[in-house]
Amino acid sequence: MLLVLAVAAVAVGQHPRRGVDFRVYLMAAERFLEGTDIYRLSDGTMPFKYAPITAPLFLPFTLLPARAAVALWNLCSIAALVLVARLTTRALPGKGEATPWTWAPVLTTLALLPAFTYELFYGQVDAVILLLILLSTRGAERGQVWRPGVAFAIAFLLKPPRRSSDSSFCGAATGACWAPPPWWAPC
């Protein structure tokens, strides 16, 4: 399964119309290297809209042709997903826990294949973000401060959460319902 994903990652990276999300980061890194403006109105519908500090993170990819950079990014995404799977899987069940089902990882991969397809097709950063958040959580559980903080910061600088007015209202309403009395009647 892993080999199939790796071949797909490289093949998709070779198509000139694929990896459009990654190419936004790549373009920003190239502009950063040139010392020019990374935010341009001329970029149309796919502008770089992320924190400027994220552009240098993609500088190593500027050493490669664009198609090879997309293919390498896709391989990095697959590696991130493999690490997430590895870090969230226990070797042995804990006391009182059922033995893990051996087909679960394969079936989970098949169930999530549409999401993996988008990840590779567009060259998205979601798999890397997921790994960074997981590393942040695991480090914080172990009492570490700096490494989890850096991983968390990079994750949210790569793709800040988008909040619509509807989700803001729903979040505020939920918070109000959970708030203790006396200012609010029970929900």
TrEMBL record:
InterPro entries: GT87. Belongs to the glycosyltransferase 87 family. The chain crosses the membrane at residues 66-86. GO terms for cellular component: plasma membrane. Its main location: membrane. It comes from the Bacteria. Pfam families: GT87. It is a multi-pass membrane protein. It is found in: Cell membrane. This is Putative integral membrane protein. Keywords: Cell membrane, Membrane, Transferase, Transmembrane, Transmembrane helix. One of its GO terms (molecular function) is hexosyltransferase activity.
